[in-house]
Each structure stands twice: as structure tokens, then as C-alpha cells.
Amino acid sequence: MSSVAIAIISVIYVAVLVYYCALEKRDNFRLATTVKVILSAFASVICIYAAILLDSYVFYIFALAFVFTVPADYFLQYIKTNLTKYRIGITLFGLVHICLLISYYLIYPVSFFEFVIFAVFVAILLVFQIKGKWQIGKEKAQINVYTVIVVFMSAKAISIFIAAPAIYTVFLALGGLFFFISDLYLGIWAYSGKDTYPNLVINRATYFAALFCLAFSLVSRLYTNPC
Fold first, then answer.
1. Which pairs from 116-121 meet CB under 8 Å and 24+ separation?
2. How many CB atoms within 10 Å of residue 126?
3. Spatial separation of the C-alpha atoms in residues 26 and 74, rounded to whole Å
């Protein structure tokens, strides 16, 4: 993939993301959901393309995580209107992060850094939950399990860069960080009574930035692992 192609893909991705955020402001649920799923599928195609070229079962597992994001994003759109569908979305996103973690540990060993970062992230979440008086409904137990998984995925991704700095681990770390920020703002938007448009935009923008960075962590490996 040439630098020109990467630049074009990046511009298109950002443009569609801006359009999607505008649709959320207009409260156009059906069209917003469609565009959101298109964004997820777009990132998934990029990731699958890179995984095929790299041709390793580890990267196929990584790409499988992206496959799960497509239906997960559809079901998560029902966060305010349909608890059953929302819980399906949470489960699918749990599978996303489990696949990512499996792919990480197949290459990188356990390190001290991931536990330190995990502890810091959990502390940050607790501060926001307590100060914001988050009110989580019937899905609380599921949300707690999911939170542990996603926070640990984020911590592991960042720790990989610390232990093995490279272009692709920079993307990996950014993806992990953006995922953490995205889920933090999802909690603020959904559970603290601050369901404002700016909080929604931060949640969505950082989430799709996370997908993009994680996908390009695989693409960037093509330049260091020729196929």
C-alpha cells in the first residue's frame, strides 16, 4: 500500500466520520447507524487486507476482532432504546478485545508495564464514576466484565510500545489509548446524565480513531515484514 493510497484512505475515513457525527446531531438514527457500520466495515477491510498479506494466524486473529466490530457497532446503537440489542453489542465488543488480547500475547510476553497502566486506567475510571455518580442499569455486571477486558486490552497495547518501540507499536498504543478514552466518554455520555452532543462526538471520534490506528498497526507491519 503506497503512501498516496494511505493518504487517500485517511481523508475518506475522516470525511465519512465527520458526516456520521453530523447525522448523530440530526438524530437520524437509521442513516447514522448505516454510516457507522460502513465506517467499521471500512476499517475491517483494511485490517483484513493487511492480515492476508502478512499471512500469519496471529494477524488473522487480530483481523477477526475487526470483523466483530461491524455487528457490534450496529447493536450498540441501541444503547438508549433496546437493552437486549445493547447487551448483544457489549458481548460482541468483548469478543473484539479478547481477540486483540490473544493476538498480543501470541507475540509479546506478559510485562510489568501492562499491570501498572491497567491500575492507572482503572483508577481514572473509578474517579469519573464516583464524581459523575454514574447510574448503570441492569447491564451493570456485564459492563463491569467488559470494562476490565477493554481496559486491559488498552493497557497491553500501550505496554507493547514501551517494551518494543516501532512504527506499528506506536499505532497499537494509540489504538489502545483511544479505545480507553472512547469508553470513558461512552460512560460519561450514557451513565452520568451528561448525554450532550460534544461528549457523544468525543466518544465516536476516539472510537473510530482507535479502529483506524489498530488497523494501520497491521498495515505498517507490511513495511517491516515483507510478504
1. 117/154, 117/155, 117/158, 117/159, 118/151, 118/152, 118/155, 121/151, 121/154, 121/155, 121/180
2. 10
3. 18
Q: What is the pLDDT of residues 105-128, one digit of tens each?
A: 999 999 999 999 999 999 999 999
DSSP string across the chain: --HHHHHHHHHHHHHHHHHHHHHHHTT-HHHHHHHHHHHHHHHHHHHHHHHHHHT-HHHHHHHHHHHHHHHHHHHHTTTTT-HHHHHHHHHHHHHHHHHHHHHHHHHS---HHHHHHHHHHHHHHHHHHHHHT----TTHHHHHHHHHHHHHHHHHHHHHHHHS-SHHHHHHHHHHHHHHHHHHHHHHHHHSS---HHHHHHHHHHHHHHHHHHHHHHHGGGGTS--
Neighbours of 120 (CB within 10 A): 12
Q: How far apart are CA 120 and CA 98, in angstroms?
A: 21
Measured at the CA of 67, the angle between CA 66 and CA 69, to 5 degrees, comes to: 65
pLDDT digits (tens, 9 = 90+) for 138-167: 888 999 999 999 999 999 999 999 999 999
CA distance 178 to 139: 23
C-alpha cell at 78: 441501541
Closest CA to 205 of 15, 33, 19, 21: 21
| Prediction pTM value | 0.92
